[in-house]
Amino acid sequence: MMTAFIVEDEPLARQELVFLLENSGAVEVVGEGSTLTKSYEAIRHTAPDVVFLDIELAEGTGLQLAEKLQELPKSPSFVFATAYDDYALQAFELHAADYLLKPFDEQRINQCIHKLQRMIPAATEPKTPIKKLPVIENERISLLDIQSILYITTQSGKTQIKTLQKLFHLNEPLASVEKKLTASSFMRVHRSYIVHLEHVTALEPWFNSTYNLVMEDGSKVPVSRTYVREVKERFGL
Questions:
Q1: For residue 74, what is the DSSP state?
Q2: What's the mean pLDDT when you consider all of the chain?
Q3: How confident is the model over 202-232, as pLDDT tens digits?
């Protein structure tokens, strides 16, 4: 799955773009920002595949941020998403992957995603197979057998792994962990959750036609509407 970061200082526009990208089923938004400095630092930490940039921001322009991002060792692709068409030439001179105009259109967003998938090898390459994950435990790094994992989640920007016995912590984004999990028994069911389907004991109806997955330890994992159909199909429902 492709990972994305959004830099937009209008909350409603940012929410709309997050919804359209994640509704495609091909993109996970790993971070959001509204200012240049904080967004730059967050992008360095999350290392997304692509950054969606507004042009006019409170403390500068998306063009300035794009120039700075190109200096990173692993520079992300970037797409400008703006209400102004005046900057298109400058954007493509900076090698922008695409240029989206507000108000956003779902069909146009999907076209952009398909274009990015062709450009970004990581979006289509097979995942690297692993049997263990490095986790932080008592100030040391331990290797955790992935078969013992109930679910992996992001809470307050921190990635956590839940097993029957313990709660562990990771130093990498959820999307990065997802790329490593090749076993078909792991499945994304929510923006903030990946579950090990073999440890699900029940599906519990929730509001707005969604579900909670009941895990072996009794904990409950929410299934967002985007993933309900796929989850039901996996369990033959």
A1: T
A2: 86
A3: 999 888 778 999 999 999 999 988 888 888 8
Ranges of beta strands (E only) in the chain are: 2-7, 27-33, 50-53, 56-57, 60-61, 77-82, 98-101, 132-137, 140-145, 149-155, 158-163, 167-170, 186-190, 193-196, 200-205, 211-215, 220-223
Overall residue count recorded for the chain in this entry: 237
Q: How far is CA 226 from the centre of its chain?
A: 14
Do residues 223 and 210 make contact, with C-beta atoms less than 8 angstroms apart? yes
Work out whether strand 77-82 and strand 60-61 pair parallel, antiparallel, or are unpaired. Answer: unpaired
**Contact 77/66 with Cβ under 8 angstroms?**
no
Q: How far apart are CA 154 and CA 175, in angstroms?
A: 10
State pLDDT tens for residues 132-159: 888 877 777 888 888 899 999 988 778 8
